[in-house]
Q: What sequence folds into this?
């Protein structure tokens, strides 16, 4: 017979879902700001490495269901990339706001703690994701801010239809707009550590320095830097010596 402690672990693991917000790695659709500075082939390869390393990070968490939310045309390609153990769901509507709304509408059943996570932060410490789930246990919403005014994760235990709006998504005001809506909805909000994701050249250079010291954090992305070393070296000040 199952012990009380075993039942508690089973219930806990069934109540946490990490949803990676992703797109298929195709030209003109991913990392568009980096495409201004890098060859298209490099950008596509980078995004694929970031996504694969992010999936590996997600799968390393104990007691967490992993899923991917994506645009409908990308579902089959991402299902092949993600593997059999990860559910890949097509979002309703277009754009990131629609994807986030779909993620929480689909997974927050029965008070399940759901965190939507971006696809380009595989260098994040697993402890930060685990801590975000713990914050969500005592708050309505958890947010992981980025240094540029956005956020790399957002979590909730229920679907709030007006929480995400298309205006301001992916801009420097995204976090402020989200917090205005949580306040308007009277949702208690907790915060995980401020971090950086990979949007522009300076982010990529910061990641290069980090992975040079600890490549095991994101091994596929670390190998990408080795393959595209010359292109990365042309990104500007700070690239010397990478």
A:
């Amino acid at each position: 017979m199952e012990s009380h402690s075993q039942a508690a672990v089973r219930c806990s693991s069934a109540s946490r879902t990490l949803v990676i917000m992703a797109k298929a790695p195709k030209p003109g659709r991913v990392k568009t700001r980096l495409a201004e500075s890098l060859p298209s082939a490099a950008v596509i390869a980078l995004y694929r490495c970031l996504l694969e390393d992010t999936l590996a990070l997600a799968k390393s968490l104990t007691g967490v269901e992993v899923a991917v939310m994506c645009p409908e045309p990308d579902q089959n390609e991402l299902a092949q990339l993600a593997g059999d153990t990860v559910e890949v769901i097509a979002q309703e509507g277009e754009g990131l706001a629609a994807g986030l709304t779909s993620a929480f509408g689909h997974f927050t059943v029965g008070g399940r703690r759901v965190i939507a996570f971006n696809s380009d932060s595989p260098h994040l410490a697993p402890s930060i994701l685990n801590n975000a789930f713990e914050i969500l246990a005592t708050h309505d919403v958890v947010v992981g801010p980025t240094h540029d005014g956005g956020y790399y994760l957002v979590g909730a235990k229920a679907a709030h239809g007006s929480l995400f709006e298309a205006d301001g998504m992916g801009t420097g005001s995204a976090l402020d707009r989200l917090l205005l809506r949580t306040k308007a909805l009277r949702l208690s909000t907790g915060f995980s550590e401020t971090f950086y994701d990979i949007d522009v050249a300076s982010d990529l250079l910061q990641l290069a320095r980090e992975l040079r010291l600890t490549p095991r954090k994101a091994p596929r992305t670390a190998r990408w830097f080795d393959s595209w070393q010359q292109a990365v070296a042309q990104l500007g000040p700070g690239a010397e010596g990478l």
Observations:
- The domain at 10-230 is CATH 3.90.550.10 (Spore Coat Polysaccharide Biosynthesis Protein SpsA; Chain A).
- The chain has nine helices and seven strands.
- Residues 15 and 112 are 5 Å apart (CA to CA).
- The radius of gyration is 18 Å.
